[in-house]
Amino acid sequence: MNDKKNALIVIDGAESTRKMAAAIAAALKNFSVVTLTAGEFSGTHILSADICFFGAEVPNPPSFAYLSAVLHHINLAGRPCGVFSNSTSGAEYLRNMVHDSELALYPVVLMEGKSDVKKWTESVTARLKKRQNIQAGA
Fold it and tell me: In this structure, how many other beta carbons lie within 10 angstroms of the beta carbon of residue 100?
């Protein structure tokens, strides 16, 4: 039996978000990671994801239109989610984008702050472990 969890990282394709996505993927050692640009995303990608990360350099990138529409019409209640951006306006856009889906949003990380990506990613994945323990009745 394979206990490896699935992580989905969707980005706008900007160089800064590509670098951040690579750092997040590297920190997800015990996960099967799929990294896509928003233009490559399809609704089926999110269905198999145990945890999601979304990154955009600026608010409302055109490539995020479909992803935003999907998240507006799907309930992913409790699944952990992390969002990252260069700007507070980009981060706010991403936060609002995931709101209706009821993803369990972890505090946003701003890439410009040179934050500890590994520690932040581990904090987001800790929510998944906590959720699994609750579901298992532990």
Answer: 14
Is 121:83 a contact under the CB 8 Å cutoff? no
Contact at 8 Å (CB) between 127 and 81? no
pTM over 0.70: yes
What distances in angstroms separate CA 116 from CA 10, 43, 123, one per listed residue?
Answer: 20, 30, 11
What is the token pair recorded at 134?
């609750």
Question: Residues 49, 80: contact at Cβ < 8 Å?
Answer: no
- Judged against a pLDDT cut of 70, whether residue 138 lies above it is answered with no
Residue 50 · residue 76 · CB < 8 Å: no
Beta pairing, strands 31-37 & 80-85: unpaired
Partner residues linked to 8 by β-bridges: 34, 52
With 0-12 / 13-18 / 19 or more C-beta atoms within 10 angstroms meaning exposed / middle / buried, residue 56 is buried
Q: Letter for the amino acid at 48?
A: S
